[in-house]
Design brief:
Blueprint: H1 14-28, E1 33-38, E2 46-51, H2 63-75, E3 81-83, H3 93-100, E4 105-112, E5 118-126, H4 134-193, H5 199-229, E6 238-240, H6 242-251, H7 254-259, E7 263-268, E8 276-278, H8 280-296, E9 302-313, E10 316-325, H9 332-335, H10 360-370, E11 374-380, E12 384-395, E13 413-417, H11 421-433, E14 437-441, H12 444-453, E15 459-463, E16 465-466, E17 469-470, H13 471-481, E18 489-494, H14 501-505, E19 509-513, H15 517-531
Parallel strand pairs: 7-9, 13-14, 13-15, 15-18, 18-19
Antiparallel strand pairs: 1-2, 1-5, 3-4, 4-5, 6-8, 8-12, 9-10, 10-12, 11-12, 16-17
Length: about 525
């Protein structure tokens, strides 16, 4: 008996399917010989033979016998053929040849595509006349139909893969051809923006610059998504600083947030190690897509970006990136569509035109899932949106992200003044983690009252935009309450703020918002060192 090994449980291709089919047929039928012949699937015909007892010699187990049976099937209008006794059938060269090989009864069933194209034959052969019945013919026809379905599916998958590759090649070619003149346009636009222009010309150039950025983003989105659909996008593993990656990504949007008068707040967990192993460019892409979306749909209020550590799994570090905005929010019936490709869940209005490809968050979802993570969203229409990304990355080092002990500022008293409650809470929490005795105020009046009641503060952190009060005037009033002391006052100013020399002179130091923890700590330590005598 001849039979290929079918020990593997998975059907990986048409060859595996043929092996399984011939094994199944050997169990369903008592025929001595079972043949499967397939052509048109690969370059070489696929032949499978099962013998209970040796009936066919090795020299005729190939295409010769299949051709003879195939010719008889073709003469039968390409339909299933049952021959009960080859000796009693009308003579023909094909039938005579089959009879001389010791085959006295057989069934031949064609394998046909949906379009009627012949892909091969399944045959049952036996040395005994009358072995096969009409019931056998019907059952084998059904099995042949099933096997043909598998082959048709295989051909469709191959065709789909070829189409995907063609599409990928087309996208790559178009991307290259479009990027070449695009780079020229962007370069010339940047040069023009540095020249003297009147107000109208400046306005036109800003439109060109914005259009350049949108077109380039569209190209990147479409190319990325086509790579993911084709399974060509690979995840790399390199050591990188996840905190710096987050902060730098957020800083790219801070100037735009300042122009919209939005508060951007960073809240980073100190427990995250200095370096992790992962795909830094793709993680930055995820962060930038989410923050960009939050910025697009938030017209007042704040955007809070948090990086938290999760329980460690073996050599992995779990991180959760959360972006919460106070924007327009998403209706509940549209929230489930948020990560679908080419989907816009917000309608443009007379005041705001949102635009976009509808691919950004779909790309984020696929990238996150490629890295074995999760992404989710919560939202209420009119109150804002919260997106969470959870990733598990390998630890590259156990060094802390900020190499200082938690009590580095023990016994230090600091007054924090900020009219944004979220920002005030985050700054206070960071300082308390360093063992600072923190007092907080949301208005100039509260700040002056606290300072008048307790003038032993070591340092003051003050936001530039305290409602209804100039920061420079407030700093002067504060110093008047502590005569004879050089009280350090740090100004917290959003990225993009232009400060004149007089304003800068009123403050001991200036820290850019969103605040990076390491900058905050280094500034405080430097000022305290110079404001206190050596012990």
């Amino acid at each position: 008996m001849e039979m290929n090994d079918t020990g593997s449980s998975a059907i990986r291709n048409i060859e595996d399917a043929a092996d399984r089919m011939i094994e199944l047929l050997s169990q369903l039928f008592k025929s001595n010989t079972i043949l499967i012949s397939v052509h048109g699937v690969s370059s070489d015909p696929l032949l499978r033979v099962f013998n209970r007892e040796q009936l066919l010699g090795p020299d005729i187990q190939g295409s010769v016998l299949f051709d003879a049976i195939g010719s008889l099937i073709l003469l039968n209008d390409n339909g299933p053929l049952l021959v009960s006794d080859t000796h009693k059938q009308p003579a023909s060269p094909a039938l005579d040849f089959i009879h001389t090989q010791g085959v006295h009864s057989f069934i031949g069933v064609p394998l046909l595509t949906e379009d009627g194209e012949s892909l091969g034959t399944i045959c049952l052969l036996d040395p005994a006349a009358g072995r096969h019945t009409k019931g056998d013919l019907d059952l084998l026809s059904a099995m042949a139909y099933f096997f043909t379905y598998i082959m048709n599916l295989e051909r469709k998958l191959e065709d789909l893969e070829q189409r995907r590759q063609t599409k990928m090649d087309l996208f790559a070619m178009l991307s290259h051809e479009i990027r070449t003149p695009m780079n020229g346009i962007i370069g010339m636009t940047d040069l023009m923006m540095t020249t003297e222009m009147n107000e109208q010309q400046q306005y036109y150039m800003e439109i060109i610059e914005s259009s350049n950025a949108k077109l380039l983003q569209f190209l990147n989105d479409v190319l990325d998504f086509s790579k993911m659909e084709a399974g060509k996008l690979l995840i790399e593993k390199e050591p990188f600083d996840i905190i710096t990656a987050l902060e730098e990504s957020v800083y790219l949007f801070s100037t735009k947030a300042f122009e919209k008068n939005l508060e951007v707040i960073l809240n980073v967990d100190s427990e995250i190690p200095l370096y992790v192993l992962g795909d830094a460019p793709k993680i930055r892409q995820i962060i930038m897509n989410i923050v960009s979306n939050a910025l697009k749909f938030t017209h007042a209020g704040e955007i809070l970006i948090e990086l938290k550590s999760l329980p460690v799994l073996r050599e992995e570090i779990g991180i959760r990136i959360t972006v919460t905005d106070s924007g327009i929010g998403i209706a509940q019936d549209k929230l489930k569509l948020l990560f679908n490709k080419y989907t816009q869940v917000h309608q443009s209005s007379e005041l705001h035109h949102y635009g976009g490809t509808g691919l950004g968050l779909a790309i984020c979802k696929q990238l996150v899932e490629l890295m074995g993570g999760e992404i989710s969203a919560e939202s209420q229409e009119g109150t804002g949106t919260k997106l969470e990304v959870t990733l598990y990355l390998e630890k590259y080092t156990s060094l802390p992200s900020i190499p200082f002990e938690k009590d580095v500022l023990d016994a230090i008293k600091i007054l924090v003044v900020d009219d944004n409650q979220t920002s005030l809470d985050v700054i206070s929490s960071v300082l308390e983690d360093w063992s600072v005795a923190v007092s907080s105020a949301r208005t100039a009046g509260e700040a002056l009252e606290l300072l008048a009641a307790n003038n032993h503060y070591d340092l003051i952190l003050m936001d530039k935009d305290i409602a209804g009060t100039e920061a420079t005037e407030l700093a002067k009033h504060m110093r008047q309450l502590v005569p004879g002391r050089k009280l350090p006052v740090i100004l917290l100013a959003p990225l993009g703020t232009n400060l004149d020399e007089e304003t800068k002179a009123q403050f001991s130091s200036i820290i850019i918002k969103p605040i990076r923890k390491v900058h905050l700590l280094n500034n405080i330590l430097a000022l305290l060192k110079h404001s206190k005598p050596e012990s």
